[in-house]
């Protein structure tokens, strides 16, 4: 790497529990997450020379304190290390923090431990992009294939993609790269909206939001389903009527059903022409998703999943077994960009479209960089690919994503776009931020419990 290592010793890792009271308006609600408070564990990594990297992992309120505690436990793997050395052997560092011989028992590579690792890794990638003075996606597309691939831990995935193949895939896509960058900068990347159909929204609100997003140029609309069939049919029919036959409807059950129930439910929704059913059943049930995919193929309904897929090994099997037609990587659940690139490469090799999960705090900000990278350097196409867009919490970021006419437009800002504006932590840190103190005092939320207070 070109970065001069002097002054890059990591001297501080700060982590905060940050929550926004979205449950009050049912924003983000679905069949199983009925009252999410969009939140994050927010990491600031500081080097000796004062350069900072900002990273986060998304959470839904309660439990953020546990992720924060886990990040604190992982500090020992980072403090005192030189950031330049980390980036020179990023795959080695990745193993250190995801596979410590004692801590791996609480994973490995899944759950809270992996969410914590993701927040730290995201802050390091942000730091790297800032040191190179580039937007994150530009760092990814500019790195030599050998260097980019050196950040990936290939253990468990070489039966689908090897290091050598990965390098070759990236080299093959050097052709036409400049044209794709130009196209991306001029035209942006297509988005779909989930804002219209949260489970807790009234029919009237769903209708008015459909009209609003149609006017904003959106063509793809996602609606939450999975609690009651009659309600789903009524809501989805209303959305279909509003958006017309030429726009696209997707539905998301957030794991509500068993396999056969998912198939039967979706056959009955098929006349409304949904393009995909997202998370029809348990996110761990690979063969179940494969069965649903097979049963729904004659109805031209694809299966989308990935926002709760634990790691690259699970993704590998979903991709190998025809269990997902839309691969929904999440920027903050698996082990940072190191592991996400591995998934993009496997998806490209197995010819599955990647349509990232976003919407939660900072996720739209992050996944735009990943999908831009995919377009320029991996798949080389935007065909049938979309980035999720939810219009929430962007106003809290220094460099929010910019969506114009339903397309994410690349911005020149350096980094991974995850730095909060000054003052946000003072207001929304849980439970002692000024907004939380007020809401708890007003009885809108219960007081924090003893574990939540541990981090405060
Ligand atoms: C709890 C989250 O809001 C979830 O419903 C998000 C999701 O499934 C999606 O955006 O897709
Ligand atoms: Mg979803």
UniProtKB/TrEMBL annotation:
InterPro entries: Enolase-like_C_sf (IPR036849), Enolase-like_N (IPR029017), Enolase_C-like (IPR029065), L-fuconate_dehydratase (IPR034610), Mandel_Rmase/mucon_lact_enz_CS (IPR018110), Mandelate_racemase_C (IPR013342), Mandelate_racemase_N_dom (IPR013341), RHMD-like (IPR046945). The keyword RNA-binding does not apply. Its cofactor is Mg(2+). Its EC number is 4.2.1.68. It holds the Pfam family MR_MLE_N. Residues 203-299 form the Mandelate racemase/muconate lactonizing enzyme C-terminal domain. The keyword Coiled coil does not apply. It catalyses: L-fuconate = 2-dehydro-3-deoxy-L-fuconate + H2O. One of its GO terms (biological process) is amino acid catabolic process. GO terms for molecular function: L-fuconate dehydratase activity; magnesium ion binding. PROSITE patterns: MR_MLE_2. Keywords: Lyase, Magnesium, Metal-binding. It is an enzyme of class 4 (lyase). Signal peptide: none annotated. Belongs to the mandelate racemase/muconate lactonizing enzyme family. ENOSF1 subfamily. This is Mitochondrial enolase superfamily member 1. It comes from Arctia plantaginis.
